[in-house]
Amino acid sequence: MKEMNSLDWKIYESLTKYIYETLRKEYNINIEGHGQNCKIRGYSGVIHQIDVLTSEFDESQKYKTAIECKYWKKKVNKDTVMKLLSIINDTDIQRGIIVSKNGFTSDAQKFAEHHNIKIVQLRELTKHDNVQAEVECGIIDFFFKINIRRPEITKILAKTVNDIEISIPEHMQYQVLIENRDGLKIKLFDSIMVFKELLHTQKEFKTISKSYSFPGHILYLSNHKHYINSITYEGLLTIINDDHKKTFSLVDKVWIIINQIFEQQTFLITENGIIVNKNENLSNQI
């Protein structure tokens, strides 16, 4: 790894790629590409350059995430978030993440949260950060089991303005579009992700149903359009037990801090590339 305080934008992109590879390896997330040569053609015919492009499978469906890296001296504003949203809407990319060195303006945070775009601050450790004592030189071994919590959708029902219920197969969530009265289209996937976030807050294996209002919106399904008033999702949070004990050792000092703003998680990255979740109580994992 690079020495402290010696980052540039190219290393910043590579570091972001490394972090997401490491944090998500339990979920079989692949890095499709990164850097100047990572490009994707949109439905419009325009070529878009993506800093880091990942892919993963949700049951039988593959979906992609675009990660934009901003190694700037200033905060990222809403224009950057809007640009990423336009790329998502023009491509088969389903999700977006923006990683910034110096944070985000309040407008950028509000706009990103509304459109389910994740925002992350990734920066070098400074003398003002009081985390050095938590990961000092030495060797500490941890043994822990992993429980993977996974939200599953069991039913999707759209109700038309004529009170007709339309069942939508979950595997079509990436093809179905919803258009509001202003002509703005979003993917059904975005709405499902909001419901999945809700499932993450529920007890395991408890079936939850929730309706979301879409008054006067148009649902595009299998080359047909339907005027709808609402969509109801039903699902539950499942849990998969990993019975194999895993270990890691902390042998160096903190170098980088990553804050996932909406999730309110903080990760510490050491000089040797070890990643520690600062928010978790490690004693509960032993």
- What's the oligomerization state? single chain
Model regions low in confidence, pLDDT < 50 over at least 5 residues: 1-5, 132-144, 244-252, 281-286
**How much beta, percentage-wise?**
over 45%
Number of strands: 16
Tell me the series of helices and strands, N- to C-terminal: HEEEEEHEHEEEEEHEEEEE
> What best-fitting shape do the alpha-carbon axes yield?
globular
How are the strands ordered across the major sheet?
A: 1-4-5-6-7-14-15-16
Major beta-sheet overview: 8 strands, mixed
Average residue-wise pLDDT: 79
Question: Could you outline the blueprint of secondary structure elements for this entry?
Answer:
Blueprint: H1 9-23, E1 30-34, E2 39-41, E3 47-49, E4 52-58, E5 61-70, H2 78-90, E6 93-100, H3 106-114, E7 118-124, E8 140-160, E9 165-167, E10 177-179, E11 185-187, H4 188-199, E12 208-221, E13 224-250, E14 254-260, E15 265-270, E16 275-277
Parallel strand pairs: 5-6, 6-7
Antiparallel strand pairs: 1-4, 2-3, 4-5, 7-14, 8-9, 8-13, 10-11, 10-12, 12-13, 14-15, 15-16
Helix pairs in contact: 2-3
What does the model show?
The two termini are 28 Å apart. 24% of the residues are buried. An eight-stranded mixed β-sheet has the order 1-4-5-6-7-14-15-16, with helices on both faces. The protein has a six-stranded antiparallel β-sheet with strand order 9-8-13-12-10-11, covered by helices on one side. A two-stranded antiparallel sheet has the order 2-3. By secondary structure, it is of the alpha+beta class. The protein is built from four helices and 16 strands.
